[in-house]
Records
---
Amino acid sequence: MIICSGLSKNFAGTQALDDISLQVRRGDIFGLVGPDGAGKTTLIRTICGLMKPDKGEVRLLGCPPGAQDKIRSALGYMPQRFSLYGDLTVMENIIFFGSMYGMSKKVIIERAEEILTITGMNSFQGRLADKLSGGMKQKLALTSALITRPEILILDEPTYGVDPGSRKEFWKILYQLNQEGLTILVSTPYMDEAELCRQVAFINAGRIKAIDSPTGLRQAFGHQVLELCLDSRDPAILNDIPGLLDISFYGYKYKVVVDNVLSAAEIIKQHLQQKGIDLISMRVVSPNMEDVFVALAEEEVAKWNMQ
Ligand SMILES: Nc1ncnc2c1ncn2[C@@H]1O[C@H](COP(=O)(O)OP(=O)(O)O)[C@@H](O)[C@H]1O
Ligand SMILES: [Mg+2]
């Protein structure tokens, strides 16, 4: 559905995209996951044909490169900063958006009602956009992006700054749309959302660090994770223990990344004993996407240091 080959883009010395190649297949929920400034928006704008790459090409729906304009209505795009008219109602906003695609008012309203039912917004048709909550504004933007019944939906950080409950709800809607046949490309800085995608491309500093399913990424992780509860709330308490690759503290538990859980567990116990701190519990947990991403980012730092 989407094939990017060797995309590069430079902005006055900043390499926003550095030789990006990826493929989104029909029926995918494909996540572009990476921190702020990684290049997600630049990549999405290039895929949508809103920006020209310095190098490389994009093919959408089997069309030749650069033909995005010809398949505009097959492409639903929800930009990172979408604009709604605050003094228009939900339905008026959708009608305005749909009419830009030359759709008749009757067809727009029919389709809008269908989509607003899926997004749970039907009873808010007459509400002014300004009076919507953050989560509802995102849903209205989503409805507008779907009005042409696109085959591919491209969303740039649709849940940024939205409360956790609304984020969950938004993802449920994406799953439902995907089940109905929509191919989805979505960018996010949230690692927990990476777990919800079928394919994930980790992107950092304009480069793809890994592409795989969440399960595949976890399997390739190559380290193990221990979760500890201690009779301590000191975030630095484990810092001087040798052999711990990464330590994170979550207020009541610690997570450490190690190469060998058995020997690490022994060393941790000894150190805590010496410090007189009780180990309440220790267990092996499966790595989450954040662990995987941190490890990939650190590999990169290590490579740089060796150069
Ligand atoms: N129009 C632009 N002019 C100059 N620099 C830009 C422009 N757009 C993006 N950048 C730079 O390119 C990099 C990638 O940005 P962006 O694609 O917006 O990342 P993300 O969406 O992952 O936060 C950043 O360093 C950003 O400052
Ligand atoms: Mg962005």
---
Amino acid sequence: MSEVLPLGEVPPEPGVLPRKMLASVIRPGREGDPLAAMQIEEVDLPPVGPNDALVLVMAAGVNFNGVWAARGKPVSVFKMHGEPFHIAGSDASGIVWKVGEQVKRWRVGDHVVIHCNQSCGQCPECNGLDPMACSEQKIWGYETSWGSFAQFTKVQAQQLLKKPKNLGWLPAASYGLTYFTAYRMLVHQAEVTAGDNVLIWGAAGGLGVFAVQICKMLGANPIAVIGGKDKVPLLQSLGASLWIDRKDFPNLAYHPSETPEQSRLRSEDCKRFGKRIRELTAGRDVDVVFEHVGQETFPTSVFVAKKFGKIVICGATTGFNLEFDVRHLWMRQKQILGSHFANAYQAERANQLVHEGKIRPVLDQVFPFLEVARAHALMAANQHKGKIGIAVQCAADEKPFSQAAGEKAA
Ligand SMILES: NC(=O)c1ccc[n+]([C@@H]2O[C@H](COP(=O)([O-])OP(=O)(O)OC[C@H]3O[C@@H](n4cnc5c(N)ncnc54)[C@H](OP(=O)(O)O)[C@@H]3O)[C@@H](O)[C@H]2O)c1
């Protein structure tokens, strides 16, 4: 076997390992803009522990955590895992290439997608409460160093899920992190039920496209917020008929240290925004707000949630320090619910819905492996819709459904 596999090809013999692999690597000295931070290098293959699997990455998915990792903010990934290198990437589809001696459920040659939660598997939290509560819980490819932007990735075998046969490698690599996160937020944390009105910020973004689909599947009414009317056709294709363009509310965003005049203008836009929601919902209020934007939108989210309503939040793209009028929260007995990724059982259940064709990935653009950094720069600039895929060992122009390179006959 040669030093490094040629990109875009599936080696004929599963399990035969090259000496080195290509990876998109971030180093401590160059954190910052993704274009400078993420560089292609030739590196050794990761070691595989007894409960691990080594996966040949056919395709990888881009997530916002790659942008955070490149920037080194708000926390440097090197403080989290202590390694002198970081290969980002928390989504992949691929072929199992090697398994540790304790792994029973998977074999070399299996076609898989990967969920991104790692935990110890041995503590009471892992075995009775929820692996997300494990003291060693980590997000693979963000809090760990061997992510998916490489020809091979090392994962815990419990992270493997069957790849849907109805999808090519690229769409299969695009949905895990954001879809499973949205699933836990809406199904388990906020317990959305039929008839609920759910306000979804960033509805055409990575989390949002799945939040919309999950709401439709549950019989709830998604109210999709978008930053531009060019995103309406995408939302309609997902079944959302109620949408609001946030650009029609130019003073809605909260920025710290606002002047009394700015505060007055924001309050006015906030009320207009609430009125717009009621126009769309025949006078009903919002049962659940789906939050991940953070500082700029959170005061509006707390304001528009109905009495006893819920705000479920998993991120804060615009800032982590949230400021809002807490009287709206306590007087009207609203709840704020934190949520973070999903456990393996939730990921498995959610993945089944993709197998059944009830939830579909929304792949916006595909980049070749050598352009991982450019794909992240695009996401950092909010110039994408849905998800971005990276072709690693699959062809960049693979057919979107089935018969992808290396796919076994069904
Ligand atoms: N904790 C977890 O497990 C977890 C999992 C996934 C993601 N996250 C976090 O959640 C956030 C979103 O992730 P994503 O994958 O959905 O990212 P994304 O694909 O970039 O989508 C985010 C959407 O937010 C909207 N947005 C951006 N700036 C905004 C602003 N100032 N006001 C209102 N809306 C704004 C944009 O839509 P419009 O411009 O159309 O409004 C954008 O499409 C990130 O911070 C990510 O790190 C956390």
